[in-house]
Each structure stands twice: as C-alpha cells, then as structure tokens.
Amino acid sequence: MQHARGPTRLPAYKGVRNVYNERWRLLVFSLFIDLLIVIVIVIASMASYLDHNITNNSRNGTTIDTAVLDAFIPGYSVLSRFLVSYLQIDLSYYLPFLVIAAAATASLRYSIKRIVRLLGEYFTSTAEIRLDDEIYNYLMFWMAQQPFTKRTTHFVAGTKISSGMRYWDSDNGEGSDDEDIGEDDDNGNDNSDMLANFDRYWQKVISKDKYRTLRFTPAEGTHYFWYKRRPLAFIREREENNGGLSLRFVPERLYLSCLGRDPAILKELLADAQRAYVARDGNRTIIYRGQKSGVDDFDWVRCMARPPRPLSTVVLDEAQKQAFIDDIKEYLHPRTRRWYSNRGIPYRRGYLLHGPPGTGKTSLCFAASGLLGLTLYLLSLNSKSLDEDSLMSLFSQLPRRCIVLLEDVDSAGITQKRAEDDSATSAVLVEKVKSSAEEKEPETTTNKGVSLSGLLNVIDGVAASEGRILIMTTNHAEKLDPALLRPGRVDMTIAFGYADRDAMRELFSAIYSILEGDARTSKMNSAKKPSGLGERHVDATVTQRKRQRLSREKIAELASEFASRIPEGEFTAAEIQGHLLNYKNEPEAAIDAVEEWVRNVRAKRKEKEQSK
pLDDT-derived band of residue 517, with 50, 70 and 90 as boundaries? Predict the structure, then answer.
C-alpha cells in the first residue's frame, strides 16, 4: 500500500547555509573584480613609465606627463622640480609605484571590510535597539550603571532629565530624597521645631540642587565589555536622517553583539536591563502622557513615577469606592476575558466620573491605579495638534492591561449632541452660501482636532484595542452626547458631589491621624542617638508619645466637631482640604477658624457670581 506524501520541505538550516554560500560566492567574485582592476592599473602605470621621456623639455623641467598630473594634483610640478634640483630625486620614476600602492591599499581595505562584515554576519549574533522603543531606555539605564562605562575614555556626559526619550529621570532609583537631608535635623517635634531647623535644612537642599547629578553613557562607537564571562560589544551609531523626530532628539541606534550563532546571552542581558529599569520604580505608579514625539507623530512618553495613593484618602462613599474597585477586579480576572471571548463581546470596560471640580475624580483614578498596580496613561483631547489618526495610533500602542484617563471630556469641543448638529446643518449651509456669494476669497480650513465620531470609533470601533480600562472625567455630564454614554462605552457612572458629614469627618481624620510614614524619621533619629543623652531627651520623647496617643484618642471627637460646623453639600473636598492644610499640625486651630473660612468662601463665590 502506498501512502500519499506531502510536499517535501527544505530544512531551515539548509536554507540558511545556502544563503551564506551565496554570500561567499559574491565575495569571491568581488575580490576577483578588485584584482582585475589592480592588474589594469599596474599595466597602465608600467606602460606610462616605459613611454616616459624624462629628457623631453628638460630645460624647463616640464613634461607632458607632468602637465597632466599638475592639472589633477595642484603643486605637483613645483614639488617635482624641487626634488630634482635639490635632492636629485625624479618623482616621475616612482609615480607608477605610488599609484600601484595606492590602488592596492584601497582595494585591500575595501576587501578586508567586506570580509570582516561577512565574517561578522556568519560568526556573530547582533541585536538592534531603536530609539523609538522603550527597550532603548532599558538598555541605556543598564549601561549607565555598569563599571566599564565609568572606565571608558569616550562617553557622553549630561544632566538632562526632561527629554522625551529618557532613561534617566527624577526617579532614578538612587535613593536620593530631600527628606534624607533633614533627617539629622528632625527630632520628630512639632511645627515650631521644624521652623527652627528650617534654615539649616534648606541651606543643604539649595546646595545640593546647585550640583545636579552627572550622567555618563558610552559615546558613539564600539565599546567592549564582559557580561557573565562572555565578551560583548556595545555599538552606538548616529543616523543622518532623524525619521521625523524633533530636533531635541538625537537620532541613533544601538547594537549588542556577541561571538557565536546563539543570541541567548543578548536576550539575557536585555531581560536584566528591563528588570533593573522596572525594579527602580518599586510599587510606585507609573504615569505616561500622550504627547508629540516628532513632527507629526504622537507617542506615550513616561512623565513620572509617584508613590501609590491610598484608597482611604479619596473622599467618596465607601460603597461607591468598593463597587468601583470590585468591578475593575472582576473585569481583570482571566475568567472574565474568556467569558467575553466565548460570547463574542469586545473585552473593554469604560467608566465615567462626573461632578464639580475638586471633588476627587482624578484622585480616585490614581488611587485605583496604585492599588491594582496598573500603569496610568493620561491623554488630553484639547490638543489642537491631536487628530483622529494620532488618537487611533495612541490607543493601538496601549498594553493589554492599563488605565487610560481622558480628563475633562466636556471641554474638548465634542460636547455638542449630534442631533443638534443635524438640526443646525441647514442653517450653516445657508450661511456658507451667503458668505461665499459675498466674498469670493477661498476659505482655509484645518482638520485638526478630534470629532465625536472619531472618539467613538477609537473607544469601541472595529479596530479598537481591547483589555484596557477607559476612565473619562467631566464636570458637566449633561453636556455629553448620549452616544458617548451608552452601555459598552460607559459601563459604570460614578457621581461626585459636595462633601457631606461623613466625608468631612473622613477627611479630617486622614489629615491629622498619625501614620506610619510620619514617625519614620523620628524612629531613625532615636536609633542614631547615643545612649547617654540624659533625662531631657527621654522626657521629650515620652511627652511626644503622650501627645500622639492623646491625638489618636481625641481625633474622632475633633472630626465630629469639625464636620458639625460646616454645612453639608456646599463645599468640595479639595476646598476643605485646602483649609485643613493651613493648620496641618493644629487641629484645634483648624476647628476654631472653620466658621470664618466658610464666610470667606461664600463671599468670594458671591463676588464671582456678581462679576459675571
């Protein structure tokens, strides 16, 4: 019985071998052509030498060959006469040999370069890293920390930390913090002691800020170093064409090379570089912002890494906060993704946070990002240079799990309802006809900006990205088009209002409670103090602990009294917090001054309304 055979396939290694055999044939052919060129030059030079008549026009020392050479090599005749007159050296006698040597040298250099390039392709592995990829930041951050970078004699020195494509920023992981400067001067006492020590502390801060940290990275060229007992080469090349990048970016590419056909060592190095870059952030929340990275291109650019904000510091009803977090957790669960996929539902989730300014909409988004360890991507639709193509490109670059925050969508010029636009279309057309009849000058219009239909296509169009969490904030939800708020685009709506009694008490307790981070410096300083300080330091420490303990016991009573003096539903959490920060170490004074603060805020609001 004969079995049907499928088409035979050439093994992968045979295909690679055929490619390199073809390259070797091309190299041999190129060397043969170079050899023929050298032979032709040698024959021509020897013929010129044999036909040369050195006595022709010997009186003026000028020959036909000399005149021709003087046309191609300015000053040749002067040099030739000088050598003949003073050194008795006839340059024309050695000229053929010089031409042969120059041709042979040029051909040899070209051949060696091609041989080295081919050997490099055949016996080495190379990884290319481009400027517009985040792995560029990983590798440059890792390189800047290596010992060989400090020993190299060719390096790039700089202090910039604000470039768009940056591998160094203010969060460089070196552990430098202004708080550490003042630890020796901080004895954990109250605000009066802080002001007494401020001058000395601030002098140290100013002195430190004058000397910005120097950053060193390998310069352009090839640098050799050892990694896990393997010799590697780091190559940094500058490109002539910047590919549309702005002038503040230096267009360049990086290469990593190793001996051998196995690139595993290069992949290990890049993985280590990524881990080192990510490890410096710890549990901080990484924030990216959509902005221009070139002439016309938009990209997500890392702008900062901030400590996570506790969810308890967000002034909102606990039931609403918990429902919001639980909904995100359920959405991120792997079972939910499979559930969506099995039923043919796009795997996306959208939220709308609306309310007056300063009520905590952005704070809730940031707290959720820190709690869940998700990267936060900020985007403003108010940018005039942002068009629909750029918006689609930004959303296509989003990772699978992240939070995208569109702030103040009501002020982005897309708040008009499409029904109103349709009803006004005829009137607009009439006005355009009239204006065109009166004025014959051509109109110049621009298509910049994002339309409502373009935003809807990005959110849940056919090519919309999946896996991301979209959060939109607005101060006026009633201005938004109902098409933007339909289920599938906005799955949960959270209303933020003015602070009530519970919110005021919660905010007061959050400001004046003794937290773990507040006592960190005091504990460190007490550990640094020598044992023989005397009774005075011990008494001060005991008094301080008593004051802290009394504050904890009385904090609930003070919070209730504070909330009772402020009318409900009239002030935002941001306004109340601003008042409390003026008395951050004096809760009793904050309570005594709150009634006057209420009168002042009301008076300012009344003046603002009258001015309108």
Answer: low
593-610 tens-digit pLDDT? 999 999 999 999 888 888
DSSP 3-state of 27: helix
Helix (H) or strand (E) segment spanning residue 473: strand 469-474
How far, in Å, CA of 575 to CA of 567, rounded?
A: 13
470: enclosing H helix or E strand: strand 469-474
Residue 191 is given by DSSP the state H
Tell whether the torsion through CA atoms of 513, 517, 523 and 525 is positive or negative.
negative
Tell me the C-alpha to C-alpha distance, in Å, between residue 171 and each of 181, 283, 299, 366: 17, 12, 21, 18
Could you read off the pLDDT of 158-185 as tens digits, one per residue? 776 444 445 555 555 444 455 555 555 5
Q: Side-chain half-sphere of 318: how many Cα atoms within 13 Å?
A: 4
Question: What is the rounded CA–CA span in Å between residue 212 and residue 175?
Answer: 15
Tokens of 243: 């590919």
- Fill in the DSSP letter of residue 515: -
**Domain 298-417+449-495 is in which class?**
alpha beta
DSSP-derived pairing of the beta strands 252-259 and 124-130:
antiparallel
Q: What is the Cα–Cα distance from 139 to 181, expressed in whole angstroms?
A: 31
List C-alpha distances in Å: 65 to 45, 71, 72, 79, 88: 12, 10, 11, 14, 19
Q: Measured over all CA atoms, what is the biggest interatomic distance in the chain, rounded to whole angstroms?
A: 120
Where are the domain boundaries for CATH 3.40.50.300 in the chain?
A: 298-417+449-495
Contact 119, 254 (CB under 8 A): no
Beta strands in 67-144 (DSSP E): 124-130
pLDDT for residue 233 is more than 50: yes
Three-state SS string over 210-277 comes to: HCCCCEEEECCEEEEEEECCEEEEEEEEECCCCCCECCCCCCEEEEEEEECCCCHHHHHHHHHHHHHH
